[in-house]
Amino acid sequence: MDITSFHAAQKYAASRPATEPAPGPGGAFQNLARDFAATLREGEKVAKAAMTGSADPHALVQALAQTELAVETAVTVRDRVVEAYQEILRMPV
Asked: Which of the residues 26, 66, 71, 87 has the least number of beta carbons within 10 Å of its own beta carbon?
């Protein structure tokens, strides 16, 4: 492993906590963000296990489907939030 790939791996590892919500009042949204991050981590774990041959192909397909559903849900929520924000900006004052 050369120094540039090692440095890139370190930077990637340092950026992983960005998927975790910041501590503080957040309630349900904080729990949703934590569940989303856990779903992505589980999908990555199963994919890595499948690459080494220690995971069942059915488990891989199931994990990928769950990850895809989680990402699609997050994108839909993001789009709705952006749409609502733009609607608020268009309101006359």
From this structure: 87
